[in-house]
Amino acid sequence: MARAPEAETTRRAAQYLRMSTDQQRYSLDNQAEAIAAYAAQNGLTICRSYIDAGVSGLRAANRKGLQQLLAEVVGGEADFEVVLVYDVSRWGRFQNPDEAAHYEFVCRQEGVQIEYCAEELGAGGAAGALLKQVKRVMAAEYSRHLSVTVLEAQRRAAAQGYWQGGPTGYGLRRCVVDFEGRPVAVLQRGEQKAVHGHRVVLVPGPADEVAVVRRIYRLFLKDG
After folding, report:
1. What φ, ψ does residue 5 adopt, rounded to 5°?
2. Among 94, 148, 190, 202, which lies 20 to 30 A Cα-Cα from 48?
């Protein structure tokens, strides 16, 4: 007797990838590679990808990939049963951990599970739920601490006379200085420093612009 064909055992899955900055350009590939390995081990076929490249995980409002994923799940357009995410922090670093739980619940309510490929969350149940919430809190705290650290570093750099970004005023230009404070190059509009550890200071611009600025000050302060 001929053997009946085996039933399809794989489940359809989507993957959600997110990186915060352009400097993490390889992060998306690393996430996708880990997710592919997880899918292969767990009988999942990845059929969709939702991506937020160079987007902070603090808010959902500016994450078009996540918004599209949620809209299709809620709208009944999702043709998958599972969403694979590298870890809890890639889903989001929401300052209120309940927000991350809310978006996961919205998906689960529509029959779509969220699975984290690089997290050891146990077999679910109370222990797994508790551990997941702890990781959400840790993800939020990391962003809060990083924000404070970056702000303090910027404050110290500004106090030392280093330019913190943005367009310069008329008559000024940005100049890159090395670790010893020696000038390296004057940046033109749209250019950025090439070495991460170098700093930027403001220097006088073209002579004609400097002359105009000095004339303005002279007319105001001396001539009234």
Report:
1. -60, 145
2. 94
CB distance 171 to 213 below 8 Å: yes
Beta strands 172-177 and 183-187, pairing class: antiparallel
For residue 198, the Cα-to-chain-centroid distance in whole angstroms is: 23
Res. 21: pLDDT tops 80: no
- Dihedral sign (CA 147, 153, 159, 164): negative
How far apart (Å, rounded) are the C-alpha atoms in residues 65 and 60? 9
Specify the higher pLDDT residue, 133 or 200.
200
Taking the C-alpha atoms of residue 217 and residue 220, their distance in angstroms, rounded to an integer, is 5
What confidence tens digit (pLDDT) does each residue in 45-86 have? 999 999 998 888 788 888 999 999 999 999 999 999 999 999
Distance CA 215, CA 212 (A): 5
The Cβ of residue 112 has, within 10 Å, a number of other Cβ atoms equal to 21
Q: How confident is the model at residue 9 (pLDDT cuts 50, 70, 90)?
A: low
DSSP assigned state of 45: E
Inter-residue contact 48 to 15 (CB < 8 Å): yes
Beta carbons within 8 Å of 28's beta carbon, 6+ residues apart: 17, 19, 51, 53
- Residue 173 burial class via C-beta count within 10 angstroms: exposed 0-12, middle 13-18, buried 19 and up: middle
